[in-house]
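Database export, one record per block. Field names are fixed; values are copied verbatim from the stored entry.
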Amino acid sequence: MATIYKKSREIDYSVGLISIFIYSFFIATLEDINILLLVPILVQGVILRVNLKEVFLKVLKVNLFIGITFLILFLEGKTELAWLVFIRANLILWFTLSFNFNGFTLYKALNNMKISNKFSLVLFFTVKYIEILFEEASRLKDTIFIRGFKAKFELNSLKVYSNLISFLIYKTINKLSTVEDVIILRCKDECLMPSNKIIIKLEETILLLTILGVIIVYYFK
């Protein structure tokens, strides 16, 4: 899974968010899957020069939860539904994660679309909390293994994990409080940043037309 494209490219954040919504809603309502659904992902990959390895690893991490759902449905004898859920979830995941949104870019996208500032800030802090949580969890995991900790199914290991979780939550909330203070200082009229005009260039147009074209062909073929 080597990187094919040398340098990533960004498109207008608001257009990216609109594309995610349209594509995800379309995929989520499908009753059957065909190869046509990969076309927007392929076009997106070319336009954004997506780092395939990076996106693949992100999708792989989330697939632990998708795999559990797949297994439950499969064991219940709902084989077709299990595969449908698995493929739909992965298509949406790949398309969404390829944009590489973070808390700030998500806020920027919503702000440019004139979405409620309070809602945008709440979403920003939610995403930021998750980002910090994963960063701290990875750092703590590396630290305890460097110090020679070996996970075992015993009381001492469970105590270590419970203490780590408590410390993780405390540290994450602490960091988020610092982020909140910085945001309050930077806010003007309760807004983190002024909204900008949504810019639709050639790349944005191609991506949106591809998604809409696939939807039209799928339903009217």
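Remark 1: Confidence is low (pLDDT under 50) at residues 1-6.
Remark 2: DSSP finds eight helices and no strands in the chain.
End of record.
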